[in-house]
Amino acid sequence: MAGKKVLIVYAHQEPRSLNGSLKKVAVEELSKQGCTVTVSDLYAMDFEPRTTRKDVIGALSNPEFFNYGVEAYEAFKRRCLASDITDEQKKVQEADLVIFQFPLYWFGMPAILKGWMDRVLCQGFAFDIPGFYDAGFLKHGALHFCGFKVLAPQISFAPEIASEEERKAMVASWAQRLKTIWEEEPIDCTPPWYFGQ
Amino acid sequence: MAGKKVLIVYAHQEPRSLNGSLKKVAVEELSKQGCTVTVSDLYAMDFEPRTTRKDVIGALSNPEFFNYGVEAYEAFKRRCLASDITDEQKKVQEADLVIFQFPLYWFGMPAILKGWMDRVLCQGFAFDIPGFYDAGFLKHGALHFCGFKVLAPQISFAPEIASEEERKAMVASWAQRLKTIWEEEPIDCTPPWYFGQ
């Protein structure tokens, strides 16, 4: 939709991969709609995935006992977080739509994107909601918990053993979905009371 | 057991955390048993969690299209993996027992330990086995797949809201378990045929 801001958080080393193609087609389709599209290309940016003391500029709240969650929250309030974090937080805050584009191997995302989540969205909250396979941890845990309205995930299964035709269909299906993405309704997520709200 | 080699892969920023205490008590108990205990303290080592082209020394197998899984495997066969990876692989290979000690927040492990898994054990294989909460992804996915016999996980729930007494009991229960850890039988994991073997 014209005028909307989109952030694509993208984690893959190879631009010519399926992930790269999915990202590229999203930039094209959304730009064509008149959206402003920003891409955080985590590998290209050499994004730091480690959550360390360096994320806090200046003195720690408790230098005797380093608790990342506490220190990051205090630094956020005092506006003392490292600029690579606040730059990303600004992009998230300004965005009308955020797309996470990453390979769904292993337990769900590359370390560098997990690092982005840990550092930008805030690390350290527990959850125990089943449904890993459809990225349940992401939509119910991190994203919903952080205040996002969450759309259904778009998953391209086993691209490495798919044919070229099938991979093209995966990209086309994503481009097609994006044409009406602004009309989609958020999916049901864990209710706020689950988190004690 | 005297003479056994133990590797503890430890990911926490604060030595005085519960994770730090659990690691410390494991080193003490296992050393007392006469084991040789090696600790890979990932934060202290500043372990690189990113899976990049730098992990391969020299020429790539396919410089036109970077596929991390393929390149890492080829480099492994040619003995051209980066030394921070091969150092860890050597520790794993020599160990009779490997303990992963990390906070179980979010979707299971800090990015830096996921990076260790991605780079040392090998990245890129899919799985869809439920049971996230008891670290099923780890025991059935990564570890079992890589040839480990897997013991039951030891989980200390919600230490941040536990009392000092309760946290001490968590540490004591771990120390107690370690006294007879060599007698434990591996748990049932996904059968090999699941992975096409």
Description:
- Two copies of one chain form a homodimer.
- By secondary structure, chain A is mostly helical.
- In chain A, 40% of the residues lie in helices and 9% in strands.
- The first copy, chain A, has helices at residues 18-32, 42-45, 68-77, 83-94, 111-121, 136-145, 164-179, and strands spanning 5-10, 36-41, 97-101.
- Chain A has a three-stranded parallel sheet, sandwiched between helices.
- In chain A, β1, α1 (18-32) and β2 form a beta-alpha-beta unit.
- In chain A, α1 runs parallel beside α7 (164-179) and α4 crosses α5.
- Chain A is globular, with a radius of gyration of 18 Å.
- The two termini of chain A are 33 Å apart.
- The model of chain A is unreliable at 124-135 (pLDDT under 50).
- Chains A, B: Homodimer.
- Chains A, B: It catalyses: 1-(beta-D-ribofuranosyl)-1,4-dihydronicotinamide + a quinone + H(+) = beta-nicotinamide D-riboside + a quinol.
- Chains A, B: This is Ribosyldihydronicotinamide dehydrogenase [quinone].
- Chains A, B: It is found in: Cytoplasm.
- Chains A, B: Belongs to the NAD(P)H dehydrogenase (quinone) family.
